[in-house]
Each structure stands twice: as C-alpha cells, then as structure tokens.
Design a protein that fits this description.
This protein is α+β, with helices and mostly antiparallel strands. Helix content is about 45%, strand content about 35%. It is rod-shaped. The model has no long low-confidence stretch (mean pLDDT about 80).
Length: about 270
C-alpha cells in the first residue's frame, strides 16, 4: 500500500519548467551584488567620516596655533614700538654728525636759529659792508617699508620716500609742515629785505639701520608653544601644539631701514 501511494504522489507532482529555474538562478546573483554594493557604500561612508574627522582636527589645530601666533604678533608689535625709538635715536645721531661736518666747513659768526632740521646763521664776510647769512634744512627720506615710523617720531620730520634705486620722492608740499614752511619763510624774508642768493651747498648721506630684535625665546601657552629664533634679518617662529602632532613654521621680517639725509644750505648776501 505505501508503495502504491508513493507512486501516485510521484505521478501527480507538477513538473518544474525552465522558466522557474531561470528565475531562481537570477535572484541569487542579484542578492550577492546588492550585498557587495551595500558593503562598498558602508565602507565609503566610514572613510568619509574618518576624513571629515581628520579635517576637523586639522582645522581645530590650525586655529589654535593661529591664536598663539596672534599673541606673539602683539608682543612683536610692542617690540616694534621700541625699535621706532631706537631708529629715531639713530637718525638724530646721524643728523647731528652731518650737521657738525657742514658747520666745520662754514665760517659761522653767530647762530640765529639752530635746530635739528632747519635754521640760519650769520657768516663771516671779508667785506665790511657785506652781510652774509646761510639758511639750511636737514631733509630725511626713509624707505617705503619703514614709513610707518614717521608717524611715531617725536622730534624728527620725514620729508619723503627713499626709493630702492637711490632716488627720493618728496611728500606733497602741503605735508611738509616743518622743513619746507620754515625754510621757505626764512628764504622769503631774506629776499624781501634785499638779500641775493650767493651759493648753494649740499651734502647727502645714505644710512642703514637694522633693529637687533629679540634673542631666541620660547613662548609657552596652554595649547602649545612657539620658539622664536633671531636670524638677523628675520624672525623664525616654530610652533607646536600639546594635544596633537600639528607643527608649523612662519617667518617675520625684522625691521631693516635705509634712510637718506640731505643737508642743504643756501648762502645769501647783501651790501649795506
């Protein structure tokens, strides 16, 4: 009896056609491909998140280090103010030397006005009936990169810019409140009372000055440190953060000033 039932079951089992077999063969590769694509997308998202995290940490380190450098810039700006005073003392010294050289070449009897950059004096005359007077001005021209110092000078007036090729360019006349106005006033006064220009004398001198700057210094902060080294013409700033491997080097030029001093005198004479 069981054998008869089995024969009947096999006899009435519906046959599988080729179409169903093809469907089953397509589904499996699709599932495998979908799983592979999903895995690749997942890995891509993980990698992108990792890159974004690294980029965020780099930005964070950069701005932390930038804050350190801003604080150092403030310190260097204070030093620059000291350098301006040092430059002013250097210029005053050279003005004095230049002035003494020209004074020694003249036969001065009496000073009417003797200042750092403008003045006049009575000169010796071999003719008793002749009166001789010299008026002078001391003009200062500074290279363009150092022009900001002119605003901070307390006793010196800059008259223009010293160009890189050795020539110089005066400021507009309206700005020359010390040298030109006083000098031209003295000149016009002499001409109005009958003095005639007899001779012009001039002496030029180009000087160089480099600020000594700070010695090697280590600046420490809560976030890291900056090592400042003096390389004569530039500062080298090497920074490092405590909580990361971020390192950076920057440089800042130490102030180097070149200036031109022109001592210009005009000798006037008048017969009494």
């Amino acid at each position: 009896m069981p054998q008869i039932f089995l024969k009947q079951f096999i006899k009435f089992q519906p046959p599988m056609n080729n179409k169903n077999l093809r469907k089953r063969g397509i589904v499996l590769p699709i599932v495998i491909v979908f799983m592979l694509i999903s895995q690749v997308v997942y890995w891509g998202i993980l990698h992108l998140n990792q890159l974004n995290s690294q980029q965020y940490l780099q930005f964070q380190s950069y701005y932390q280090d930038e804050i350190q450098h801003v604080m150092i810039e403030d310190i260097l700006n204070d030093v620059t103010f000291l350098s301006t005073k040092s430059l002013e003392n250097k210029v005053l010294s050279d003005l004095s030397i230049q002035h003494e050289v020209m004074k020694n070449r003249l036969n001065i009897i009496e000073w009417g006005l003797e200042e750092n950059q403008v003045g006049w004096a009575t000169l010796l005359s071999h003719n008793e009936n002749e009166e001789r007077i010299i008026i002078y001005r001391h003009s200062l021209y500074i290279n363009d990169d150092s022009q900001d110092n002119c605003r901070l000078f307390e006793t010196i007036y800059c008259e223009g810019v010293l160009n890189k090729n050795g020539t110089y360019s005066p400021f507009p006349l309206d700005n020359n409140k010390l040298n030109n106005q006083v000098f031209m006033t003295l000149k016009n006064q002499l001409i109005n009372v009958g003095f005639i220009l007899e001779q012009q004398v001039q002496r030029n001198a180009i000087k160089n000055w480099i600020f000594e700057g700070l010695p090697q210094t280590l600046f420490t902060f809560n976030t890291g440190s900056i090592l400042l080294t003096n390389q004569i013409t530039r500062y080298q700033l090497s920074s490092q953060l405590k909580q990361s491997n971020f390192k950076r080097s920057k440089s800042k030029q130490i102030e180097h000033t070149q200036f031109l001093i022109i001592w210009q005198g005009e000798i006037y004479s008048k017969n009494n």
